[in-house]
Amino acid sequence: MKNQGLGGEAKDAVWDLLVIGGGATGLGVAVQAALEGRRVTLVEARDFAAGTSSRSTKLLHGGVRYLAQGRWRLVRGALRERATVLALAPHLAQPLAFVVPGRGWWSWAWTGLGLKAYQWLSGRMSLGPTTALSKAALLRCLPGLPRMLAGAVAGMRYWDGQFEDARLALALAKTARQAGASVHNHMRVTALAPSAQGWQVSLFNERDGQTSTLQARCVVNATGVWVDALRQMVLQPWAGQEPVKALVKPSQGVHMVVARESLPIQEAVLIPRTADGRVLFAVPWLGATVIGTTDTPRSDAPLEPLPMQEELDFLFRETRQALGVDLTRADVRSVWVGLRPLVDKVQGGVTSQMSREHLIRREAPGLFTVTGGKWTTYRSMAAQVMHAMLEHHDLPSAAQGPAKTGQHRLVGAPEAGQAVHAISEAPGLHLWGSEAALVQALPGAERDLGMGLTEAMVRFAARNEWALTVEDMLARRWRALFLDARQAARMAPAVAALLQAETGIDPQLDAFLALCQRYTLAD
Fold it and tell me: Over 60: is that where the pLDDT of 3 sits?
């Protein structure tokens, strides 16, 4: 076993905080703690945002559907956080207009009332006015969907947020590192036990195959839909024969991606109610159109869940009936599945009726679990986690007080007022924001590997963004896998060669090619 901890620290050094999990929640905690001047390290077993945090519907929103459930406070808080996140990284998170067609006058009026309330709750942080649309105005907004609009009597337009989730997670990781945090992907926790200093943690580093240990006063379990697996490992020895009660009920959401020409929209489309009681979105994103989503309970939480046939049938059927577009399997360029960590406060509850409220739980002195919630509220969740540690006296107050993360722009954010490219446009160098010049300075800036990805981008990701495997690069640093799985497979060998040259580590090309098959629908 190595005699050094992370970042070259002496083995007997004690960290203030260890965060386990590199999704939105864990990264948010790391940023908060680092900006408070604490000694914090974060470890992620796979890659940043490899789970739920890269598989969202790409929306930063307050939750329109929760208004019908009477969760006004939840919605209002999320709407405020939405505006804050948009200001922190405007190259990766932006306002987006949504059009909602009304099939009947009563449903149109009821929907309009709810959307007006949605705007009212956002107050001065509103992204734009909610307006009524005549049928003629609907046709001008959505000229590519005449069949859908044939049955509409009128419509509404409202505003919400859109983002590039994987690169926003990466921006958080860079911001935490810049603030002094030690941040690691491909670093797996193998054991966690109480110690005189707080907690002793055993780690396995997949980059070099080495093991190490560290000591931390506090540990945050922010592993998303997999929090119960870590809780079981740590708490079961204390529980004896009694199983540790699960906190999370996983719910599976499936999204399909088609070419923009197959579903030609410039504004997002929202269908307020589908057959399973959820909403259906069609969202312009990175030059393509994303259709989603389903809500299917699961009793397990696989790392790479597959879409069920009934879910695919549902999306094809709803796209045809609600949007008036007949899609075939051949039209689908990529299909991805995300697992939502829904907190099951009522055992056996229907997942489509559960909200995205989060849970912060003190499992033992210095050991906290945080789960649930959603991308939009990552920052407020992080602040609440740190407050809980102070409240229980597991950590002392920071010398400078709580970090003002709502005012600390993320790494890569352009100067205020600088023009940015729309997230709905095809991916490009603009996704690096203020770091674009650093990317362009590397060799291969003019060599295109496909879909706008250049050799220089791969080199930058390997040197500055923790990219180790082809999946790291083509699934999250550059969203090729999520936009066109077949094209991603064609690009993979060249990317693998570059990563091998940059890191000297096996980039796992064969594993990525197999993954591409899972994101592809057979004709």
Answer: no
